[in-house]
Amino acid sequence: MQADVWRAFQRLHALRSAAPPLVRGTRQGGTRASFAQERLWYLDQANPGGTAYHLPVAFRMEGALDTRALRLALETIEHRHEALRTSFDSSRGLVVQRVRPPGAFRMSSVSLRELEPSQEGFAARLQEALAREAWRPFDLLRDPLFRATLFELRDDDHVLLLNFHHIIYDGWSQDVLFREVSALYDAFRLKRPSPLSELTIQCADHARWQRSWLRGRVLEGLQDHWRKCLSSRLHGPRLRVGRPDAATSHARSRELGVLPLRLPAPLASAVLHMTREAGVTVFMTLLAAFQVLLHRYSGNQPKLFVCSPIANRQRSEVEPLIGYFTNLLVLPTDLRGDPSFHQVLEQARGMVSGALAHQDLPVQLMDGLDLGNEPLSQVLFSYENTPRHPLTLSELRIRPVELSGGTCDFDLFLALHEDGGDIAGTLKYSRHLLDDADAVRLLEDFLAVLSQAMAAPERHASEFLPTCPAGIESPREADVPSRRPAAATADLLGGLRAAGPERRKALLREYLHETLVRVALRGQRPEQPIHSLQELALDSLRLIELTGRIRTELSIDMPVSRFFEATSLEVLADELLARWLRAQVSETRPEATGTGREFVTL
Amino acid sequence: MNQTIGDFTEEQVARIIRDHIDQEFLFRSRDAGLTEEDSLISRGVIDSMGLFRLVNFLERRFAICVSPPDIVMDNFRSLQAIRVFTLARLRARACAEQC
After folding, report:
1. Sign (positive/negative) of CA torsion A266, A270, A273, A279?
2. What is the pLDDT of residue A454?
3. Structural domain of B55
4. For residues A147 and A163, is the Cβ–Cβ distance under 8 A?
5. Quick check: A595 and A367 in contact, CB under 8 A?
6. CA separation (Å) from A378 to A515, B7, B88?
7. Beta strand A422-430 pairing with B4-5
8. What's residue B38's pLDDT?
9. What is the ipTM score, two decimals?
């Protein structure tokens, strides 16, 4: 790896070394949610009962299952990890996590003994039973966000379904879970005590620590970096395959498609070779190829960005925890002037090194991030090379069961990992955008770009995929200005002061509607007037931006949760008006112009 | 090579590091034939995220302090390099405790 990559690691280590100690604190009265949890909480508020953040896994377990040992193992896990006993609420405008005492967890049992595995239709009926449980909505306020169901097929044949809401669980957690369930089951089967050592801290401690660390100069330093990186308006790739109109849509639910992928061994070797030669990391090499693919698939869109979820487990104390820690890195690329693959890779090296060094800034604190009105999670990319621990239970044959159904909040997500010297992974995609044949073609094209790039890195971006159906250049549509002009806000405030009661209501309703059109619909007029925030299924940054903007532009102090509790825009406008009037009576406030921060930190 | 430094013998240090890499980075890998001198980085064994897991592990397991200038290729290029670096840090600590 080249010197700048190492310098990035040094900078990151220096930053983390200077952080305050991460210690256990009180749980009384609840703890503020972490930044990551807050982001997901917003998404859930906007689309209650949505299934895009369910993370179910299912396993067929053949052999003599010790049900008692399994139940005890899961109960112990629930006892150990506070995240699995946490629910979320909003209090005085802040999102808080509340930890319940242990003991409420129950592994449910469902008998499917009437199904005969050899009979026709067995697989479909099993899938149906699993899907019903896997996509049963979670209520973040009231429900346990971890569920386990054991489906009994026969005495020696079971299917275990574990289901989590993402707000308490992530990819890393899965590794922790499998390791612990495997170890506990084996111990409990033999009537031995738990071999696991006590956890010293929990997610709530990390959330508190994160907020005490990310302030002042540390926060400013991180924000400075991202402000420079993301100084121009970002554009997600506008893919011209499938149904482009559906891309990045705000549809409430988008059906998820998943395709597996494995790089042929010679190609994986070539990737490692190129990585070594160029002094980069495998992540950077694969990302550069993916960026070229997106460039070609978007009709040579010159600037685009992808987001990369990263583990965000900065400290060794949080490594053994189940919880949701993931942060998103925003990785823009500039392909103006038709650079060679090698140049794209160089650019990826610089961008990713900087992003790695500054990865601890939660995405909603990226001051100045200007996405116009595009959602953040359009196209995602990840590459992991840490091992994945399989679930292994003594004397049982365990196979993962694929679950049908499910939704997603992105257009495309290429998730790769190192697997026994190979590079493998999945392409997840919104079926709203691509049909399965489009997705297969896209994967084939990714492999083609990658092998062409490894063979001839001097090749220019436009020379990849010469027959690419989307590779016809066309001018971009004009960008919709994302910020409300300062003058318009001043007019509104002036208007509100001058108007009578009825007119004020009308002005505020109009303002709310316009702001929603601007933030949520990229300036496109809806066919029907918007009635409520909930119907828009907004992504988290839009929501944080929206609520922050309204509060800033109107100088109104209103708890965030009130925005979602209002059942219609009408009700919301009334409440905003009441609060605005109260503020007018009590003092003459300086006018907020809304031209400062793009969104408000909550 | 079996001098005791602090709480560990050199052999223990070598084994602990090797086991950790095997468990955390080479898991299920066909690449069982990793030698002491093989470059972990150019073989893609340790990537950016992996490096921090490894640093966290060394700090915790051996109670040593890895400072930012230590994070250079020379200290992490191979199993041998990591061992030499860890031993140097352990020696420095043992010496500081005695003085």
Report:
1. negative
2. 96
3. 8-21+40-98
4. yes
5. no
6. 22, 51, 47
7. unpaired
8. 74
9. 0.80
Q: Would you say residue A481 lies in a domain?
A: no
Torsion of CA A593, A596, A598, A599, to 10 degrees: -80
- Residue A42 sits in the same domain as residue A56: yes
Residue B81 belongs to some domain of the structure: yes
Query: Could you tell me if B61 lies within 8 Å of chain A, comparing CB atoms?
Result: no
Tell me what pLDDT residue A210 has. 94
Where does the pLDDT of residue A366 fall: very low under 50, low under 70, confident under 90, or very high at 90 and above?
confident
Chain B residues with CB inside 8 Å of A311's CB? 49
Q: Which two tokens stand for residue A177?
A: 């879970």
Instruction: Establish if B20 touches chain A: CB-CB under 8 angstroms.
Output: no
**Lowest mean pLDDT across A18-32, A337-351, A458-472:** A458-472
User: Chain A within 8 Å of B19 (Cβ-Cβ)?
Assistant: no
Question: Tokens in use for A596?
Answer: 């400062």
Which residues in chain A have their CB less than 8 angstroms from residue B60's CB? 316
Q: B4 to chain A nearest CA, in Å?
A: 26
Give the model's confidence band at A487: pLDDT under 50 very low, under 70 low, under 90 confident, else very high.
low
State the helix-helix crossing angle for A486-498 and A540-554, rounded to 10 degrees.
Answer: 50
How many distinct structural domains can be found in chain A?
A: 3
In a domain, A525, yes or no: yes
Which secondary structure element, helix H or strand E, spans residue A295, and what is its range?
A: helix A282-297
Structural domain includes residue B74? yes
Is A384 within 8 Å of B60 when comparing Cβ atoms? no
pLDDT in tens, A392-420: 999 999 999 999 889 998 999 999 988 76
CATH number of the domain within which A570 lies: 1.10.1200.10
Domain that holds residue A369: 206-463
CA distances from A259 to A134, A212, A415, A439, B92 (A): 20, 41, 11, 8, 52
Residue pLDDT, tens place only, B68-78: 889 888 898 88
pLDDT digits (tens, 9 = 90+) for A157-209: 999 999 999 999 999 999 999 999 999 999 999 999 999 999 999 999 999 99
Span A561-574, pLDDT tens digits: 677 777 788 888 88
Instruction: Determine contact, residues A356/A314, Cβ cutoff 8 Å.
Output: no
> Dihedrals φ, ψ of A195, to 5°?
-85, 0
Quote the mean pLDDT of chain A.
86
Is B84 within 8 Å of B60 (Cβ atoms)? no
- Please tell me the total count of domains within chain B: 1
Q: Which of B25, B47, B52 shows the shortest C-beta gap to A387?
A: B25
B87 domain residue, yes or no: yes
- Residue B79 placed within a domain: yes
Among A145, A170, A200, the domain boundary falls at: A200
Residue B27 to residue A419, Cβ atoms within 8 A: no
Query: A25-34, A125-134, A437-446, A468-477: which has the minimum mean pLDDT?
Result: A468-477
